[in-house]
Amino acid sequence: FEIYRRWRKYAPGPMNYPLIGALPKIVAAHGIVGPFRAWADRYGDVFSFRMGPYEAVVLNDPALIREVFNKDVVSGRPQLPIIKLRSELNGNSHGIIMAEGQHWREHRRFTLQTMRDLGMGRAGMQQKIIEEVGEFIDALKKDGLREDFDYKIPLHATVANIISRVLSGARYDKNDANFLRFVDNVQDALREDNAKFLWNILPWTRVFLRKTQKSVFRRTKEIAVFIDGVCKQKFGDVTEQALKLSNATGRDDVTVDFMERYVHTVQAKQLSSFTMNGLGLMVEDMFEAGFDTSNCTLHWAFLLMCAYPEVQKTVQLELDHIVPQNTIPSVSDNYPLPYYEATLLEVHRFASIVPTGIGHRVEKDMTINGYFVPEDTWVIANLHYVHFSEKYWSHPEVFDPSRFIDGEGKFVTSDKVMPFSVGKRRCVGEALAKAEVYMILAAVLQRFTLQINGRLDLTQTRGLVCDTQHHLINFIPR
Ligand code: HEM
């Protein structure tokens, strides 16, 4: 088999065992970041390997990732068992994250347009974020100095309510048990353990992984039921009758929220792949992609401020000096805050919360850097490697915003920081995520100094989305 690979000119890579490929190395290392780093150092810009029945190619160079992810033929998604399960539980619809072909193109175009129309990064959205941040700040004022205070609890509600308001207009009480369970389920879905990974890659391992399979089924179902409830609450029973009801309102104003826009598009039959059945998974996808990502980025931002107090101090002084008192700055205010912007970019680099992006699938045989890549191969962007390789950064293990400040004190961005990925499937929530993180971190640092008593651990958790290790932070009023 290895001889065949060499003959067909597959990209070099680690040794593949029959049936399981290079999986034992990934499983033994408890995650892919470590082996991917070692293989990138060893094989260069591209390497390939097998995971059970799947062929995978990994890209380790930012320019190459950009070039390859801009090709239509690399815009598919691997169709794993969990994807099929989600689809079945949602009336055989496909959502956006794992959709392909015409369905994906139409849903992506709709989402980008809708996010733009709903004012991502602009005043209307910023007002919603300010209202939610207010609740978080109140919680910090009340409990921020309590020894057992876990800031993640009120922060979850804040970030979850921001995306919920964009999607359905609904906001939930931070103590609403149903909502909190849903949010926990969404979080768990993105934090994989080895068992879940194996169950998806090698379906026959289900026999040994019954417990994992059961918990994945339960969680997936609970998420679908919650979203179904959100849809019913908003539009009644999401059926033909609901369509008529919604039609009867005859409103031209369809810029209220994401769900109303979706229903309007179905009614207007503007896009052929849009059906009422598709609403639930679409909302679920947007919630899953939009909650824990921004949430984890903020966890990283807070922890890094504790780990690097001099950076925290510099940001605070810059904010105090430039932003009027009692004002929460937002991206569109264009305040000259070069050090703050550099800090946010460095948080994205250092956190690398989606370390290997979301896998793409090659839809037709192709070549990458002269190597043969057959149809159905997964293409993975090694974003964590790009963010931490000494090829691209000096002292990458050090959190240092000044790497993005030029000789005149101006902020200079870098095309080597790509937390939202690049190309045709680049994140559609980038503007919202940036707006949230910008405003929440600024609002907190304007009012509090963050400190940790005890040992700091800056290692990542594992999964599709990677969090910080658990720490309790003191929020000391300034
Ligand atoms: C800091 C926060 C975020 C990070 C780091 C992030 C990162 C990513 C990455 C790496 C991808 C994969 C792109 C690819 O396949 O090449 C992605 C896709 C996606 N993201 Fe985000 N994301 C964030 C926030 C959000 C938010 C707030 C939303 C929604 C409001 C969102 C919605 C999506 C969707 C729908 C996709 C799938 C796009 C497609 O398949 O065409 N993300 N994101």
UniProtKB/TrEMBL annotation:
Does the record's keyword annotation contain Nucleotidyltransferase? no
A GO cellular component entry from the record: cytoplasm
Q: Which cofactor does it need?
A: heme
Query: Which InterPro entries does the record match to this protein?
Result: Cyt_P450 (IPR001128), Cyt_P450_CS (IPR017972), Cyt_P450_E_grp-I (IPR002401), Cyt_P450_sf (IPR036396), Cytochrome_P450_fam2 (IPR050182)
- Binding of heme occurs at 427
Q: Which UniProt keywords apply?
A: Heme, Iron, Metal-binding, Monooxygenase, Oxidoreductase, Signal
Gene Ontology molecular function terms on file: heme binding; iron ion binding; oxidoreductase activity, acting on paired donors, with incorporation or reduction of molecular oxygen, reduced flavin or flavoprotein as one donor, and incorporation of one atom of oxygen; steroid hydroxylase activity
Whether Iron counts among this entry's keywords is yes
Look up the record and give one Gene Ontology term from the biological process aspect: xenobiotic metabolic process
The UniProt entry, under Pfam families, shows: p450
The record's section on SUPFAM superfamilies has: Cytochrome P450
Q: Tell me which family the UniProt entry assigns to this protein.
A: Belongs to the cytochrome P450 family.
Quote the protein name from its UniProt record. Answer: Cytochrome P450
* Species this chain originates from: Ramazzottius varieornatus (Water bear)
